[in-house]
Specification:
105 residues; mainly alpha; two-stranded antiparallel ribbon; 3 helices; transmembrane
Length: 105
């Protein structure tokens, strides 16, 4: 079980989900794009793993280490849905931009 700065227990599932998604994106997308841009497969894999490590470090800092249990409150469903939809739009636009870069390059 993870604990925050004050020693309060923190649910590990959100952190593990974000870290796993970072690994998925890093190894499958970043490594492939790096190889398509001319890097060797080893460099592409290293870039993917570095991206996954960055995702995991940022997720740990935000969701475990610096989490303030006293200020934690329920977020309304509308706000959560809006955040998810905007996040999906941003990720899709970023992947489209990288794909366009590969297509034009």
């Amino acid at each position: 079980m993870f604990t925050d700065r004050q020693g309060d227990p923190v649910d590990p599932v959100p952190f593990l989900v974000v870290a796993a998604l970072g690994l998925l994106v890093g190894v499958s997308f970043v490594a492939t794009v790096a190889v398509q841009l001319g890097a060797s497969p080893a460099v592409g894999l290293a870039a993917g793993v570095a991206t996954a490590a960055g995702f995991a470090a940022a997720a740990y800092r935000r969701m475990v280490s610096e989490r303030d249990s006293a200020a934690h409150r329920e977020v309304p469903a509308e706000s959560r849905l809006l955040t998810i939809v905007l996040g999906v739009v941003v990720v899709c636009a970023a992947m489209f931009g990288v794909s366009l870069l590969l297509y034009l390059g």
